[in-house]
């Protein structure tokens, strides 16, 4: 905040953020006459330009009153779509308490496609059951796209989901992971109830 208590202004054209986007995910953003982009611009007071030839987006404030945080939120929204989230789930990132966490499996387990496929299968589970359970217990969204596993949610629950996914990557039994999730989620709820009772 500035000394007069107002949020700092940004000058359109000075602040620009760039996001690399896989070509097939650009289509998600530009379909239906760019309705998603138009809504993103409206909700964040930003200007979003898509370069379909070089597969990237440029995000900048559309007005001098656009908060810098809005430009960052617009970038995170596009990042989320880039790693497989549908826009209806990525919108969640426009809330102040929501974050996006991206795990690049190649940096964790290497480039072996067989190993990558096996690990992704463990996280997805039969019929998507494991992924769904992680989402339901933690209240997060999880995307498994190409060699990325990504999570959207509040900071605490995203970290719980990440820990569970890392346990699966390291070979923990699904039953062990579910026990961890239940215990961690219970502790979060208990702390939340305690906080409410103090107010």
Quick recap of the structure?
The protein is α+β, with helices and mostly antiparallel strands and 199 residues long.
| CATH C-level label of the largest domain | Alpha Beta
Alpha-carbon distance between the two ends: 27 Å
Task: Look at the helices and sheets and give the structural class.
Answer: alpha+beta
Strand order of the largest sheet: 1-3-2
Strand fraction band?
A: 15-25%
Mean pLDDT: 91
Coarse shape? globular
Provide the number of structural domains. Answer: 2
Could you give a short account of the major beta sheet?
A: 3 strands, antiparallel
Relevant CATH superfamily of the largest domain:
K Homology domain, type 1
The count of DSSP E runs of length 2 or more, i.e. the number of strands, is 6
Based on the coordinates given, report the CATH architecture of the largest domain. Answer: 2-Layer Sandwich
Poorly predicted residue ranges: none
* Oligomerization category of the chains in this entry: single chain
Radius of gyration: 19 Å
Series of secondary-structure elements, N-terminal to C-terminal = EHEEHHEHHHEEHH
In DSSP terms (H or I, runs of 4 or more residues), the helix count works out at 8
CATH T-level fold name of the largest domain:
Ribosomal Protein S8, Chain: A, domain 1
